[in-house]
Amino acid sequence: MQRTSLIDKELQDKVLSDQGLTFSEKILSLKRSDEPGKIALASEIMVAKVDLAMAHDGTAPLAIKVLGELGIKRVWDSSKVILHIDHTYPASSEHIANFHSIMRKFAKDQGCYIQEGNICHQYMLEHFVVPGMLVIGADSHTTTQGSLGAFATGVGSTEIAAVWASGKIWLKVPDSVKVVFDGRLPLGVYAKDLILFTIGKISSEGANYKAIEFTGSTVKDLSIDSRATLCNMSIEAGAKTGIVEADSVTKEYLTSLGREVLVDVHGGKEAIYDKVVEEDVEHMEPYVALPHSVDNVKAVREVEGIPIDQAFLGSCTNARLEDFLIAMKMLKGRKIKKGVRFIVTPASKSVYEEVLKKGIMDVLLEAGALITAPTCGACVGTHCGVLGAGEVCISSSNRNFIGRMGSSESKVYLASPATVVASAIEGVIADPRDYLR
Amino acid sequence: MKGRVWKLSDNIDTDVIIPYKYKARSIDPKELAEHCLEGIDPEFSRKVQKGDLIVAGRNFGCGSSRDQAPIAIKASGISAVIAESFARIFYRNAINIGLPAIVCKGISKETNEGDIIEIDLGEGTVKNIMTGKSLKADKHPEFLEKMLEAGGLVEYYKKFGKFPWE
């Protein structure tokens, strides 16, 4: 036992100090189980040990069925399997209620962790993820969790069932793209604008199969809430994962929640990147992704005045405390435009509580917002804000594909919480900067 | 494998392949297949025939992690998807459920809707029977090829008692 840990420590020191390896190569080298001790280089297919394996009510019921078909009676490690009931919570129909029951029974039988009523990725940040972990989630936005210096990637239900069975996954070690944001964020420009701008520039497949590492002076100053937004939308450029390496901001966040770093991984100074994208954020402005693709990005001022039926502040992308503080600032003493539905869905119960405690709820209600329980709801078009034919929504969420939020004849514009709020006030797509001065 | 082509464009996303509202309701492949590609052609599920193929452009299957997307396609009768490129989660999911996802550069330009295409996975070729033109397809890594041959991850595990990468 002692001997193994000594070898592990030796390998860890060797990998972590190697200046030629990327963040992804380092972390996957440490997790490698097919040839332990062999460095995992970009493009290589390898097998890795998983630290956490999660699924939600959109993916877990099928994964549970697959596990049964495999004839597996017990998950590999019940302390590492986490179930979330969040996509349609509380259940909006009998069908969905039955899926939720299947999940609760499975969690009870297996002794694994289950939570309901918090958006999975936010909950994972608040409760489980630490730097140096390999997190596999049956949800594409699992990339969000890379904001805490973990390697986190999404898979489907069949694959997560195999992870639950074996504790392992095959991965192709990704090439890496470095995105460097430098400078101070101008007024009205947020992490959401940075990532929309970047996706618009590199396209919805610009980082396909690759790891995006976000770095630069701007990123260093971003909160975990904002970093989560960057990593969350990495998948919208096709990325396997989005990463912000752990630093003092990460450590402060973890300390406040009583957690510690597992392994502090940093990409080597001489590591080879597939692409380096450098942006001076001081020239940026608020952006919006037009229907029906996330890379169809324009400046808000170019599309100002488009009438909206609904404004949505929610989802795993942008419904954290920081987003609500912006909304409060903008809405104090103002009203939502008559005829517009302003739907607000906090990402977790903890965010909800803070929204209440800080008096944000009062401001939102007075302005005319409708506040729902934490759920993925409107973003995936299941409940709490589904769009009808011909309706237009401006949303702080992550996808604007045809039919994403409801009718295939509806339109979704994606923007920052600030742009969503400004648009809710005016009833048309509007520039937030006028409300922030 | 030989079949008639349904031609699709670049960036076909999972919300178009199977919207969440149907996925949330059911995990029954037949029910999912009824709504397959509804966002592009509401009649698709009625018109598609067993053994047909999808030929698509770049980034096929981008978006969500839902296994229900390849499941809906497979259950609709489609026997393989050939594309310029795939989004990574869709690619893994397709092979896991036993739907061949084949990368073939240049296929979009060389194919029209209704053409008959012949795929030879062993040789790694895709041939358009109408034009006689043959293209090279990317080969899957060997362990994925074996998984496809078995009919997917579950079938492989049942047959060999282990996962293909073990």
Lay out the secondary structure.
The complex is a heterodimer of chains A (437) and B (166).
Chain A: H1 2-17, H2 23-31, E1 45-49, E2 52-56, H3 60-70, E3 81-85, H4 94-110, E4 113-116, H5 120-127, E5 134-138, E6 151-154, H6 157-166, E7 168-172, E8 176-182, H7 191-202, E9 211-215, H8 217-221, H9 224-232, E10 241-243, H10 248-256, E11 275-280, E12 287-289, E13 297-299, H11 300-303, E14 310-313, H12 321-331, E15 341-344, H13 349-357, H14 360-367, E16 370-371, E17 392-395, E18 411-415, H15 417-426
Parallel strand pairs in A: 2-3, 2-5, 3-4, 5-6, 8-9, 8-11, 9-10, 14-15, 14-17, 15-16, 17-18
Antiparallel strand pairs in A: 1-7, 12-13, 12-18
Chain B: E1 2-7, H1 14-17, H2 20-25, H3 29-33, H4 44-47, E2 53-56, H5 68-75, E3 80-83, H6 88-96, E4 101-103, E5 116-120, E6 125-128, E7 134-136, H7 142-150, H8 153-160
Parallel strand pairs in B: 1-2, 2-3, 3-4
Antiparallel strand pairs in B: 1-5, 5-6, 6-7
Helix pairs in contact in B: 7-8
The first-level CATH class of chain B is given as: Alpha Beta
In the CATH classification, which architecture of chain B applies?
Answer: Alpha-Beta Barrel
Strand content of chain B: 15-25%
Physical arrangement of strands within the biggest beta sheet of chain B: 4-3-2-1-5-6-7
In the CATH scheme, the class of the largest domain in chain A would be Alpha Beta
CATH superfamily of the largest domain in chain A: Aconitase, domain 3
Percentage of residues in DSSP E strands of chain A: 15-25%
Gross geometry of chain A:
globular
Oligomerization state: heterodimer
Can you write the helix and strand succession of chain B as a string? EHHHHEHEHEEEEHH
Number of domains of chain B: 1
Q: Could you tell me how far the N terminus lies from the C terminus of chain A, measured between alpha carbons in angstroms?
A: 61 Å
Task: Give the CATH topology of the largest domain in chain A.
Answer: Aconitase, domain 3
Low-confidence runs of at least 5 consecutive residues of chain B: none
